[in-house]
DNA sequence: GCACATGTTCCATATAATGGAACTTGGTTT
DNA sequence: AAACCAAGTTCCATTATATGGAACATGTGC
């Protein structure tokens, strides 16, 4: 079955396999048929069948008209995750203020298994149609927020994260290997600011800063995105101080925040 | 282990147990310690320990400072669920229009395992809806949207849903048993409109309509919420036609919508 | 009515989960 | 400092669960 040493962080027990199936359904991005998943050859027929039965019965998948989609129960759980584990609720007022002040699109992201997870977004008045929304994921190696966080990761987590990067050359400016990326990360670590120089999508540029804990580990990152048509990189660079200041405020708020402390009803 | 006759909260296999743990963490609403969950007596020590290890390794839980919270991976999956399985993306323009037209708070909800899951919300002045609003759950038996959907459920699903209701008397107007609720559901089924007459929270009232498929099964529900201070029930009742019209448009759009259809278009 | 594709069930076997108890770890009391 | 306690972690024989090849059902077009 499973070779002794499989890929890092993969396939622990039945739960891991079930999550693989969920990921596969999520990756499809549209309702999938049982046979479509089966055709990937990743699972034997009966195994996949029972796994999907279980997931459906749990509300993690939804089965209608012979096709499967992700289930609503995920939305319910994510609501809790968004409140408990994400910076978004804490950062909201600061991001509102920053977005209003700069009149630009602001993104709040966190690192999830080596990928960038956007947890909040504040659009400028004329929203640019692009790759973004809360819950959306993106690559770390070619985004401003991704590099900002990578640059402050401890070595063991960094190498784990780098091993998960695709290094697909989206544009002519994209890093295509870990070494060239590491060189830039060192600079970013020093300056505390990172840029996306059209590395992910042509004409899209951004400036980003990490949100750092007391210990210097990245809690998340903040970015302002624009286009080459509207801003130069130098113009974006001038926004860095405002971003840094907001990031510091968020970091402070995040660490001051202990949950409501409702041990008992204090009668 | 499990008694021969499985109880309402049927736990299927390891995945089911893992989900129970996730629910427990979600229910806490704040970071929980291993010992807190252990103290509920629902799981033996070693079992709970390994289960949480697995969940953490999968990114479904996050472990920091000795406490567990729901993990970010859930947000990522929920993003897919929101797009694939919820009415929200389809309903968005219609809800925007309705909300602008009425200048009132509009909710879009769906049924999830007997409970009302709010998948979108448009407040009169608050423009950005996200997981902060979407993802909230509420009871079916004492909310407008809940009753609107229950009223159109086939008998088997209805009785399953009713068996999951708490019938907690939140206010003096709350239904406290299935029979009294069923009587109202019959009326709602006829009229196609339901009301929350301060059944969940004092002074909070609402009018709701179901979003029905061609076959008459509820896909979701739409509501306008207000307070006794601002509106009478009669005033809310006058909004019903606008709600019904919007619901019909959403139903049509939902059923017209087949996903992008990348392969074969029916020859 | 037949053929082929898709979906479902069976069942002996292999695998993974179980949980009682023993063992660390870190902090507090005597 | 030794003794204590609580929280967290590991061990391992036992038992429950998942596995998957193959047979069985269902249904759609010919």
What does this structure look like?
Two copies of one chain form a homodimer. Chain A is an alpha+beta fold and 267 residues long. Chain A has helices at 13-28, 34-39, 45-57, 73-84, 88-102, 144-150, 155-162, 178-191, 233-237, 240-256, and strands spanning 32-33, 61-64, 67-70, 105-112, 115-122, 137-138, 194-197, 204-212, 218-227. In chain A, the strands form two sheets. A six-stranded antiparallel beta sheet of chain A has the order 6-5-4-9-8-7, sandwiched between helices. A three-stranded antiparallel beta sheet of chain A has the order 1-3-2. In chain A, a hairpin with a 6-residue loop joins strand 7 and strand 8. Chains A and B meet through helix 1, helix 3, helix 4 and strand 5 of A and helix 1, helix 3 and helix 4 of B. The first copy, chain A, binds a DNA duplex (30 and 30 nucleotides) through helix 1, helix 2 and helix 3.
Q: pLDDT average of chain A, as an integer?
A: 87
Largest interface: A-B, 58 and 55 residues
Count of alpha and pi helical runs of chain A: 10
Order of helices and strands of chain A: HEHHEEHHEEEHHHEEEHH
- As laid out across the biggest beta sheet of chain A, the strand order is 6-5-4-9-8-7
Fraction of residues of chain A in helices? Answer: 40-55%
Shape of chain A: globular
**How large, in whole angstroms, is the Cα Rg of chain A?**
20 Å
Please state the oligomeric state of the protein chains shown. Answer: homodimer
Strand content of chain A: 15-25%
Total beta strand runs of chain A: 9
Cα-to-Cα separation, first versus last residue of chain A: 56 Å
Largest sheet of chain A: 6 strands, antiparallel
The structural class of chain A is alpha+beta
- Uncertain stretches of 5 or more adjacent residues of chain A: 1-10, 260-267
């Amino acid at each position: 079955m499973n070779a002794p040493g499989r890929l890092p962080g993969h396939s622990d027990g039945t739960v891991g396999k079930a999550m693989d199936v969920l990921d596969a359904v999520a990756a499809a991005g549209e309702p999938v048929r049982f046979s479509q998943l089966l055709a990937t050859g990743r699972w034997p027929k009966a195994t996949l069948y029972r796994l999907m039965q279980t997931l459906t019965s749990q509300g993690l998948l939804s089965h209608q008209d012979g096709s499967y989609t992700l289930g609503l129960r995920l939305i319910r759980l994510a609501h809790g995750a968004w409140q408990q584990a994400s910076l978004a609720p804490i950062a909201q007022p600061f991001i509102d203020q920053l977005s209003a002040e700069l009149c630009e699109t602001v993104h709040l992201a966190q690192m999830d298994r080596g990928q960038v997870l956007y947890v909040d977004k504040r659009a400028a008045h004329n929203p640019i149609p692009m790759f973004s929304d809360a819950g959306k994921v993106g690559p770390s190696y070619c985004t401003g927020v991704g590099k900002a966080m990578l640059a402050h990761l401890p070595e063991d987590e960094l190498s784990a994260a780098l091993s998960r990067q695709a290094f697909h050359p989206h544009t002519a400016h994209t890093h295509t290997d870990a070494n060239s990326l590491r060189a830039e990360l060192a600079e970013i670590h020093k300056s505390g600011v990172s840029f996306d120089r059209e590395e992910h999508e042509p004409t899209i540029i951004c400036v980003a800063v990490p949100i750092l804990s007391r210990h210097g580990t990245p809690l998340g990152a903040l970015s302002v995105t624009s286009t080459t048509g509207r801003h130069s990189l130098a113009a974006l660079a001038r926004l860095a101080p405002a971003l840094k200041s907001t990031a510091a405020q968020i970091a402070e708020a995040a660490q001051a925040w202990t949950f409501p402390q409702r041990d008992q009803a204090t009668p």
